From TrEMBL:
<dbReference type="GO" id="GO:0003824">
    <property type="term" value="F:catalytic activity"/>
</dbReference>
<feature type="domain" description="Endonuclease/exonuclease/phosphatase">
    <location>
        <begin position="2"/>
        <end position="110"/>
    </location>
</feature>
<protein>
    <recommendedName>
        <fullName>Endonuclease/exonuclease/phosphatase domain-containing protein</fullName>
    </recommendedName>
</protein>
<dbReference type="InterPro" id="IPR005135">
    <property type="entry name" value="Endo/exonuclease/phosphatase"/>
</dbReference>
<dbReference type="Pfam" id="PF14529">
    <property type="entry name" value="Exo_endo_phos_2"/>
</dbReference>
<dbReference type="InterPro" id="IPR036691">
    <property type="entry name" value="Endo/exonu/phosph_ase_sf"/>
</dbReference>
<feature type="region of interest" description="Disordered">
    <location>
        <begin position="197"/>
        <end position="216"/>
    </location>
</feature>
Length: 216
């Protein structure tokens, strides 16, 4: 099964709300089996790596095990706004992804090919990891940060402060949004490809081998 999700974020909409909604929506998607492709106009300049917004956008992608494939400009002003996202550990592979001027819009068209196989697929369980950031009580979270060792340490070097920050914040996040590990089946038998269609496909193959003669 292939789940194809198309997203459009209006350019003037709230990024904070979008990031929260996107994370919450994806939490529901990863619990479902099958391949997943997320695409659309995100109106985020992902080509500007130094932009804090881009960093904030990439964090949940990494947390959810997602990979963004478009690296060429998709807008006339030279930025990459239109994205194609898949799961890193998915067996589905995109082929020949390229960007081409559509001549119809200020956005270019993103093209890619998907491998097509009519054979039934056997279930292949994979492990996914994610955190439910939406469930965090930020008042309690803030208090835990204030009461952490970050505010109770002696003079430390820069390197020691970085290590302390990483250790404390990781521990607090784990407390409020524990890492969830689930196993899902990325490949399942296509529900429409039953014995009837399989028999017809074999008949078609035999007829092609006989010179393409069909009884119409």
């Amino acid at each position: 099964m292939l789940r194809f999700v198309v997203i459009y974020r209006p350019p003037n909409s709230s990024l904070t709300n979008f990031f929260a909604d996107f994370s919450e929506y994806y939490e529901t998607l990863i619990l479902k089996s099958g391949h997943l492709i997320i695409t659309g106009d995100f109106n985020i300049h992902v080509d500007i790596l130094s932009d804090p917004v881009v960093e904030e956008f990439k964090d949940p992608l990494q947390s959810f095990g997602l990979s963004q494939h478009v690296i060429s400009p998709t807008h006339r002003q030279g930025h990459t706004l239109d994205l194609v996202i898949t799961q890193i550990d998915d067996t589905l592979s995109l082929e020949r992804l390229y960007v081409k001027d559509s001549c119809l819009s200020d956005h270019n068209a993103v093209h890619f090919f998907l491998p097509h196989d009519n054979r039934p697929l056997s279930a292949k369980p994979v492990s996914i990891q994610y955190r439910k950031y939406k469930s965090i009580n930020y008042s309690i979270f803030t208090e835990d940060v204030k009461n952490s060792r970050l505010f109770k340490h002696d003079l430390l070097s820069t390197s020691e402060l970085v290590d302390l920050y990483d250790e404390e914040i990781t521990s607090i996040i784990q407390k409020h949004a524990p890492l969830v590990v689930r196993k899902i089946n990325t490949n399942q038998k296509k529900p429409w490809f039953n014995d009837k269609y399989e028999m017809r496909a074999k008949q078609d193959e035999r007829q092609k081998g006989d010179g393409g003669r069909h009884n119409l």
